[in-house]
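re: ur question from yesterday

yeah so i grabbed the chain u mentioned. its 378 aa long if i counted rite. heres the sequnce exactly as i have it in my notes:
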Amino acid sequence: MREKILVLGGSFDPPHIGHLALFTAALRRIKPDLALVVPAYQAPLKGEPEAPARERLELARLGLIAPLPKRLKRLVRLDAGEILSRRKVYTCETLRRLRQQHPGAEFHFAVGADSAASFERWKNTRELKAACRWWSAARPGASKGIPKFFAKISGKMPDISSTKLRAMLALGQDARRWLVGSVAKRIDTRKLYGLSLLAELKSSLSPERFAHTLAVAGWAQELAHIWGADQDQARLAGLLHDFGRSIPVPKMPAYARARRLSVPCRDDIARRQPMLLHAYISEDLAKRRGLGSPAVLQAVRRHTLGGTNMTLLDRVLYVADASSPDRSYREAPAIRRLAQEDLDAAFSACLQAKIAHALARGSWIHPLTVSLWNGIAA
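ran it thru and got these structure tokens back, copy pasting raw so excuse formatting
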């Protein structure tokens, strides 16, 4: 008889109980002679994984192999081929490698519902369909259906995804119910998935400012989902936007001068409204720690005074900060509702409210804010 091999592929960033349920059900349904768990170094259709490759390899072992019953565990091996390549590897390449290593074997490949739904975007789909039999299982929260040629694995799958888990962890929410205990422990011990940043923010910001930071990050992520911005970038920008508030306001001008921050009208801000420097300091602190892409850093820098040609991410963060759920000023509830219907209108409303409040207090208004309003009103 031909050797029957089951392959479970994915980023496993992080591996969760949904992956384990799928794998366990596939093992019992297919009854392979050998099963291989193959973590990707970087999946071609996804961005760079959040956890380092070596960490995900260990998390896959802890979350997908260690919890299995002995009779199933003895069939399973962890395949580090894609991880060791240190590059994006297409599934067709991995299957070619495995077929060379196991000539004549009958291959079965299992993937989660989201990956199955994206199959037609994979490279060499005709080759992939011919190389093995494909399996997946329906998940309640999956955004799209599984292609018809996939064999269905029966069983109730948990409604969780790695994307949702990363968001929960980054926002400090309890995700333990979705993780094998040893995986949750390693994530916490190694401070993966934003836990290191959260710990620093919590220790350096006041409790009220930290709570605001979490509220903005969650709201920015939600608005990004509504308006088609990158949710991970929006959430990170929200977490970083008030990093500079860890510097006492009286010390902000000295910090800006010492770091030679490029701040429009820096001396005027230092003299009139030094707290406005915090957005530029937030960007600098994030940059010094290697946090955030250029797009994220720009959004952080612009979240208070704005700038010319505001990008979608810039506007999402600007609105999220001004209308986060913890904001209680008179216009905030209406702006929150508007933000879900018309982001540009909400952006204008935020700017108008800021200017109105400044005028009511007799405060100086930065030229960038004036220019931003004139550009909208033109």
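noticed a couple things. The chain has two domains: 4-159, 205-377. also Residues 4-159 form a domain with the Rossmann fold fold (CATH 3.40.50.620).
anyway ttyl
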